[in-house]
Amino acid sequence: QVQLVESGGGLVQPGGSLRLSCVASGFTFSAYPMAWYRQAPGKERELVASIAPIGDNTYYVDSVKGRFTISRDNAKNTVYLQMNSLKYEDTAVYYCRRIARDWGQGTQVTVSS
């Protein structure tokens, strides 16, 4: 069955960095676009970034442009989200998604001093 397993979340100070990873299994990873979403307390889940199957096209929500980078390693069935210059408002549960299909369980990112 399809599995998406996120890791790399945690507590970080403002201005710090984290790298999230999502290891996929159960489908042909290289054939699908992938995405990272996030959901903050009391807010709707939002799309943060997405990446095309071979990584040649990416999308970022305006609030993370220039700070976050999505990438993928199709040989490792893994998609990454490098998050730099983190802000308080980046605090959320971050979810990996096979676009329009499956969700991971989420990993908590907390930005706090």
- Strand arrangement within the widest β-sheet reads 2-10-9-4-5-6
Distance between the termini: 40 Å
| Global structural class | mainly beta
Order of helices and strands: EEEEEEEEEE
Structural key phrases:
113 residues, mainly beta, six-stranded mixed beta sheet, 49% strand
Explain this structure.
The chain is mainly β. Helices cover 0% and strands 49% of the residues. The protein contains no helices and 10 strands. It has strands spanning 3-7, 10-12, 18-25, 34-39, 46-51, 58-60, 68-73, 78-83, 92-98, 107-111. It has a 6-stranded mixed sheet, with no helix packed on it. β4 and β5 form a beta hairpin.
What is the strand and helix layout of this fold?
Blueprint: E1 3-7, E2 10-12, E3 18-25, E4 34-39, E5 46-51, E6 58-60, E7 68-73, E8 78-83, E9 92-98, E10 107-111
Parallel strand pairs: 2-10
Antiparallel strand pairs: 1-3, 3-8, 4-5, 4-9, 5-6, 7-8, 9-10
Concise account of the structure shown:
With 113 residues, this protein is mostly beta strands.
